[in-house]
TrEMBL record:
A cellular-component GO term for this protein: outer membrane-bounded periplasmic space
Family that this chain belongs to: Belongs to the bacterial solute-binding protein 7 family.
Signal sequence segment: 1-28
Source taxonomy: Bacteria, Bacillati, Bacillota, Tissierellia, Sedimentibacter
Keywords assigned: Signal, Transport
UniProt-listed Pfam families: DctP (PF03480)
GO biological-process terms attached to the record: transmembrane transport
TM region(s), chain numbering: none
UniProt source species: Sedimentibacter hydroxybenzoicus DSM 7310
Name of this protein: DctP family TRAP transporter solute-binding subunit
Length: 336
């Protein structure tokens, strides 16, 4: 009888311990998941959005779900200017503006607005992925922003609803929408056009209603936003290469563990390769599609040089904005 009672007590004690341990485990605080909030200004069909989807996949995979990425495309959280400010303040974790609006916050980025600075994509990647490009990204830390790399926006081309432009002289008096960027406005003024700064989200309606006659963007954005439907003529000027710059709030990045920082950097690097590949493919594909619906004007070397000659005086203004050292670093690297 005593042995039986002892056995019952032992079983009860074990069960009590098991239940107690189970109860303790169930109530234990779960490991906190770190959320990264990303906002950008383009449609889900663009290479930019695909780049962010790849970044999300990599970060969540590499962190075993301890970091999650939420993406808000289509200017849901604002345009480039608003998103840069939001990242500075920490209200949004990451964004990826084009370089032209970023220059309003960090003047060093005006260096990338030098017309005809790059001759082709190979040169773009070689320079931007070098120490020269890294030194430009480093200037963002002063503004509480971490620059993470260079994604593809593309070479900008001129479209208009009036005539097939082949020379600077034909731009006289044409109202061309530009970004809110002093270098871009000066460059179009030198060509005789009437530059009109305007938010990207307002552009389609402005072109449709003839508030402005023209605009300039890479082929992917022209097609994705249907600008070609309200612009008959596309002149392949390729006058400026625009990059997207993935940004993160610098304080947020610095407060991450070294492990998480490495995950962010590795994921951006891998996403960059895929985003550029998609962007290059889209550029070719959308150009071909627009050739079937629009008049695309291919400039000869001499015709393109005429645009370059007219825009050349803008270099002095870039030097005053970006600094002579930064301009020298890029012009020497590109052989400008």
């Amino acid at each position: 009888m005593k042995k039986k009672l002892a056995l019952i007590l032992a079983v009860a004690l074990c069960l009590g311990l098991f239940v107690g341990c189970s109860s303790k485990d169930a109530n234990a605080p779960k490991e906190e998941v770190l959320e990264i909030k990303v906002g950008h200004g383009t449609a889900e069909t663009t290479a930019l959005h695909q780049g962010w989807l790849k970044f999300k996949e990599l970060v969540e995979q590499k962190s075993d779900g301890k970091m999650t990425v939420k993406i808000f495309p289509n200017q849901q959280l604002g345009g480039d200017r608003e998103l840069i400010e939001a990242v500075q303040l920490g209200n949004v974790t990451m964004t990826s503006p084009s370089t032209a609006p970023l220059a309003a916050f960090d003047p060093a980025f005006f260096v990338l607005d030098i017309p005809f600075l790059f001759s082709d994509r190979d040169m773009v990647y070689e320079v931007l992925d070098s120490q020269v490009g890294e030194s430009l990204l480093d200037t963002l830390k002063e503004y509480n922003i971490k620059g993470l790399g260079y994604w593809e926006n593309g070479f900008r081309n001129f479209t208009n609803s009036k005539l097939p432009v082949r020379s600077p002289q034909e731009l006289s008096g044409i109202k061309v929408r530009t970004m809110e960027n002093e270098i871009h406005m000066k460059a179009w003024s030198l060509l005789g056009a009437n530059p009109t700064p305007m938010a990207f989200g307002e552009l389609y309606t402005a072109l449709q209603q003839k508030t402005v006659d023209a605009q300039e963007n890479p082929f992917e954005l022209i097609y994705a936003t249907k600008f070609h439907e309200v612009q008959k003529y596309i002149t392949k000027t390729q006058h400026i290469y625009s990059a997207y710059i993935p940004l993160m709030n610098n304080e947020f990045f610095n407060n991450l563990s070294s492990e998480y920082q490495q995950i962010i950097m590795d994921s951006i690097k891998e996403a960059t390769a895929e985003q550029r590949q998609i962007a290059g493919k889209n550029d070719v594909e959308f150009e071909e599609k627009m050739r079937s619906t629009n008049e695309v004007i291919d400039l000869s070397g001499d015709e393109k040089q005429a645009f370059r000659n007219e825009m050349a005086p803008v270099l002095d203004l870039v030097k005053t904005k970006a600094g002579e050292d930064m301009v020298s670093a890029f012009t020497e690297a590109t052989g400008y």
